[in-house]
Amino acid sequence: MQHETPRTSVETMPYWDAARQGHLVMRHCPKCDRWLSLTTTACTLCGGVAEWRRCSGRGSVYTYTAVHRAPREALQADAPYVLAIVELEEGPRIMSDIIGCPPSSVVCGMHVHLSFEPTEEANIHVPVFVPDRRL
Amino acid sequence: MTPSIAGIAEFPQGKTEWPSTMALHEALVRCALEDAGLTLADVDVLYTVSPRSDPYLVHAAALAERLVIAPSYCVTFEAGGGAPVLMLFAAHQVLAAGAARTAVVVAGDLALTGVSRARYVDQLSQVGPVHPEFEVPYGPSVPSLFALVTRRYFEEYGTNEEDLLAVVEHDRHWAAQHANAHMRTPVDRAGYLASRVISDPLRLLDCAPVSDGGGAIVLTTLDRGSEAKHSGIVLLGVGASTSTLHLTSRVSLTEPNAGIALDRALSAAGLTSGMVDLALVYDCFSIAMLLNVEDMGLAPKGEAGRAFRAGDFNRGGRIPLNTHGGLLSHGHPARAGGMGNLIEAVVQLRHQAGARQVLECAVAIVHGMGGAFATHAVGVLARSDA
To answer: Judging by DSSP bridges, how do beta strands B45-49 and B102-110 pair with one another?
Structure first.
């Protein structure tokens, strides 16, 4: 599936540096040991500066949708593709695509794990998720 | 004098033949002023939203120039679908403070005929309520965000597409009785199920259409006395609330803050929900109607669909809803989408809704929503003799 290169910033470079190395990092408060949302820079409990912490990459599908009408022409060839919100096993949630399975096989609660897909720009990779293989 | 709504304007929505977005705005303003028995020279305050078909820096100033007036305050608001209610609130505050005497709140867009569909959808998906770094690469569209919410609603409450259909049927039934509505042909279950899937489980009919349209409201403290065409409609109170812009930052996807905004509005108005005769709910998607209705306490959680099917929201039911067809059928002219709710409230409160009239309508609540349940605003409107 085609992935558009996101508009990155200096502030979020640690996220994209980690992605290039095959890791997913999310915002975390070291003092409170709490995970924060991707847009939060300071812990709402202690006020401390949030750090980027690596996640295991394992999670489950919190919700999903098979997108039939893509928002732009470049993506229509990939439709239907599965857009999802994945709940990481550590707690925080991330938007992503579920790849490597038929759209109709995706269900809430399905266990998934991290993979990476390239974008148009060589050094920017985006985290995606694939279903855990059934035993 | 208490600021009161003295004039309104709205034209048939949908695929129109307006020669320009400015022409639509000019006509709305002139028509609303005429309805109020006032003139362009009376306008001290001009509020607009930024049309997708005519983007401007300070659009309100460009409109003032077109009208050849120079109001003290020209402001263009951005609050998603909550803007119309918040613009009315802001105008009310300026007038109540004595800083001006007449305000025109106008929101319009040639979203259908003035913007290419591809550009409209793409633009919304890039700068809509999606994160440019962490979400855009995954190809979310605005409908897909609401579809993510719908799936959670189904999962948590055991609801299904029949509940979405109940909303679609309701809105279409009422739009058929409104001359200005965009979508007026009846929809039945077979037609709904046959409509194409946009983002599963949302179908085309679950999504408000892209429409040309909008409305204008004149608010004034000038007393027209016996020459007034209509008795004034007053804004008794406004309440608003915010959750998060991005779905991933939210604890729950099925608990919008519409109820908090309503509670604040009723509290400001000094009323209880039992005193409300009519509700105009922001329903850009069928799921938006269901969740907002439930959150505002008009149906128990997970049961709004059932309430629609039971006729609770028709005239003679518990509380009439969206008697103009909602955004789903009355039309969705981009940022101006919430104006239809305000205009219908005024028409109903004036007892001028004809076949759609809610008997003895004295108090109405008007709800607007920004983003995908990110912000909410509710206004309580009433007849001045209520």
So the answer is: parallel
Decide: residue A77, CB within 10 A, 0-12 exposed, 13-18 middle, 19+ buried.
Answer: exposed
Q: Reply yes or no on whether the pLDDT at B157 is more than 70.
A: yes
Amino acid identity, residue B146?
F
Tokens of B331: 């039309």
- Give the integer Cα–Cα distance in Å for A106 and A98: 8
Decide: B374 and B145 in contact? Cβ < 8 Å: no
CB-based contact A37 B249, cutoff 8 Å: yes
What average pLDDT is seen over chain B?
96
Cis peptide before B55 (omega within 30 of 0): no
Identify which of A32, A43, A33, A132 has the alpha carbon closest to the alpha carbon of residue A86.
A132
Q: What is the ipTM of this complex?
A: 0.96
How deeply is B354 buried, as exposed, middle or buried, from its count of CB atoms within 10 A (0-12, 13-18, 19+)?
Answer: exposed
Check the CA dihedral B283-B286-B292-B298 and report its sign: positive
Q: Do A37 and B144 touch (CB under 8 A)?
A: no
Residues B215-227 pLDDT 10s: 999 999 998 777 7
Among A39, A65, A99, the residue to mutate for chain B (most B Cβ within 10 A):
A65
Over residues B368-383, the mean pLDDT reads 97
B11: Cα within 13 Å, side-chain hemisphere = 24
Q: Is the dihedral of CA B186, B190, B192, B195 positive or negative?
A: negative
Of A96, A86, A15, nearest in space to A50 by CA: A15
pTM above 0.95, yes or no: yes
Q: Tens of pLDDT along A6-38?
A: 888 999 999 999 999 999 999 999 999 999 989
What's the rounded Cα separation, in Å, for the pair A20 and A9? 15
- Per CB-CB distance under 8 Å, the chain A contacts of B140 are 67, 71, 83, 95
Does A4 or A131 have the greater pLDDT score?
A131
**Could you give the CA distance from residue B198 to residue B90 in angstroms, rounded to a whole number?**
37
- CB B108 within 8 Å of CB B217: no
- A51-110 pLDDT, tens per residue? 999 999 999 999 999 999 999 898 999 999 999 999 999 999 999 999 999 999 999 999
**Tokens representing residue B282 in the block:** 């922001």
